[in-house]
Design goal:
This protein is mainly α. The chain is built from 14 helices and no strands. Helix 4 packs across helix 5 and helix 5 runs parallel beside helix 8.
């Protein structure tokens, strides 16, 4: 088979096929796969190629079953001290719009089949799997315009939080950091969509876990921009902080107090800067007057 560049989602599959193909086959069709056939299948380059390879060997393999078993196996191996497959799984979900080498569209394509696979193993995602869970929360999934993908991804996040509420502070902090998205010129057009994604998820978290209000209030305090930040950054943060009150009424007092105090700090900073400018202007006027008087005296 001609060599092809492996996609991010294919790398975990390539090495795991030989281990898991028998398990997947036993759940989809009677019979077993020989060791030689399993070894040959290790040359598979992507999840999409899995069906073709299986068809050649006369075995029908359900990709969703395969991926679910891969995740289950990776988590178990990590627990037993073998992290190789686990960190490949973490890498699947790692994505930054500005630093990743793949496009948003490619990320959606590659991650979509993995979402139900992780969802099937939700109960296992305790504190031991911090890297995977925090990566799921901090990935730049909110910038995706594919609403079906966003819904699936947000549902996965919500499932994790429902099963393991201990992750709520990390999840909300990861969400709130996007409140100032749109401050850059190239972000302006997509900002309303991104903010809608954020608030839709926070609203569901708040509805499902009402006690998350404390974490939301704390996350807003931590994410509050410096008083010297650009005006559009300040405006975006305040707008989104106040928007939280549409559904998180339990933290109304904390949010209003935060916004008020922050506004006062900005006002004080502006007043100080104005006074400094006035002082500099007066000094310049005095220097000009002194220079003029000195020139007249010499004449």
């Amino acid at each position: 088979m001609p060599a092809r560049t492996e996609s991010m989602a294919s790398r975990p599959i390539k090495r795991a096929v030989s281990k898991l193909k028998k398990t997947a086959a036993s759940q989809t069709q009677k019979g077993t796969v020989s060791t030689n056939e399993a070894e040959q299948s290790s040359s598979v380059d992507s999840a999409d190629a899995l069906d073709t390879t299986a068809a050649d060997s006369g075995v029908s393999i359900d990709k969703s079953v395969f991926l679910r078993k891969f995740v289950e196996n990776a988590l178990q191996q990590f627990k037993e001290g073998n992290p190789e497959e686990y960190y490949k799984l973490v890498k699947v979900f790692t994505f930054s719009k500005y630093t990743s080498y793949i496009t948003v569209e490619k990320y959606v394509e590659e991650v979509t089949p993995w979402i139900p696979a992780v969802s099937a193993n939700i109960s296992a995602l305790g504190i031991a799997y911090r890297e995977l869970v925090t990566t799921l929360f901090s990935s730049d999934w909110v910038v995706c315009s594919d609403e079906q993908f966003v819904h699936r991804y947000a549902t996965l996040c919500l499932q994790i939080l429902s099963a393991h509420p201990t992750w709520v502070p990390q999840a909300i902090s990861a969400i709130v950091r996007w409140f100032t998205y749109g401050a850059r010129d190239k972000e302006t057009a997509a900002a309303p969509m991104v903010h809608d994604h954020l608030h839709a998820l926070i609203k569901e978290i708040y509805r499902t876990i009402p006690t998350c209000g404390t974490s939301l209030a704390a996350a807003l305090v931590d994410a509050c921009p410096f008083k010297a930040a650009k005006p559009n950054v300040q405006v975006l943060f305040v707008q989104n902080a106040l928007r939280c009150l549409d559904y998180a009424t339990g933290i109304r007092r904390q949010v209003l107090q935060l916004v008020l105090n922050h506004t006062i700090q900005i006002d004080v900073e502006v007043q100080v800067e104005l006074e400094d400018l006035e002082s500099e202007s007066e000094d310049e006027d005095e220097d000009e007057a002194d220079n003029g008087a000195h020139g007249s005296a010499e004449e």
